[in-house]
Design a protein that fits this description.
The protein has 278 residues and is an alpha+beta fold. Helices cover 49% and strands 13% of the residues. A five-stranded antiparallel beta sheet has the order 3-4-5-6-9, with helices on one face. A hairpin with a 2-residue loop joins strand 4 and strand 5. Helix 4 packs antiparallel against helix 5. The radius of gyration is 26 Å and the shape is elongated. The relative contact order is 0.10. The N terminus is likely disordered.
Amino acid sequence: MLTNQAPATGLDNDTSWTALYERTGDEPSDYVSEVRSAVEYGLHDPEDSVEMACAAAETAGTSVQALSSPWSLYTPQDAAAVASALFIQLRHGADALTELTRSVGRIVERGEAELPAPAGPGQSANLADALAALRTVSDTVHGLVDRHASTTVRALHTAPGTASLPGDVHETVVAVAALLAEQGGQAVTLNQRHPDGAYEDADDGFGCGCDITIASDGEKYDFHRGDSEWSLSRESDGRKLSDGSIVFSTWETLSTTLKNAHPQQLVDDILRVIAADQ
C-alpha cells in the first residue's frame, strides 16, 4: 500500500538542525565520495585551494539547476534535508572566507605582499579593504545562519505533506497503472507477474517483473523497470523471436531512476512520450 511520507527522524530540542545533512551525507553518493576522496588524498597547495573553491561554486550552481526541476522535491521533509545542507554550505562558505583572510595574512607575514592602510575616499579598494570585506561578509553570513537555520529546517521537517509515495517497485508500478487509467484516456493493462504479497525487493535494479501495457492510437507501449531505470518501449520497435517473445534495441528512458519515484512523475513522462508520437 502507499504510505504518506512523514518525518523519518524527529528534530527535538536535543537534535541539531545539521542532523539531516549529516545523515544524508553519510549515505552512499558518488558526488560526496569524490570530494571526500580528494580530502583524504590531501589538499596542500594553491592549485588545491583554487580548484576546490571552483568546485564548490560549480556545486552550488548545480543545486540551483536541480531544484528548478518540476519534480525536484516530493515532500517538505525533502526540503528540510536540502535546507540543512544549504545552510551548512553557507556556513562552510563563511568559514572559507575567514580562512581566505588568514591565508592572505600569511602571505603578508612572509613578506611577499604589503598590507597598506585602508583606502581613503575616492581611492580604489586595496588589499586592506579586501580583507575587511571578507571578514564582514563572513560575519554576516554566520549571523544569518545562526539566526535562521535551526527554525527554518525544523519548520520544513515538521510541515505536513499529502504525497502518497510507493514503498517499493511493485507499489510504484501498481500506482502508475491506476493513474494512467484515470488520466491517460488509453487502454491500460497491469501485467502482474507474481502473486499479491509475494514480491521481495532484491534491490538488483530489475524490479518485480510486473509491467504495464498501454494501447494508444494503434500503438502499444510497455512500461517497466530494468537496469535501474524506468523505461517505455513501443511494440513497433520490437523484434519478435521464434519463441514468440519480443526483444528491443531501442526504448525511451524516463526522467527518474528512483524505484519508489512519485507515480505522477512517471505518468507525466509516459504521457509526454505518447503525446509526442501522435
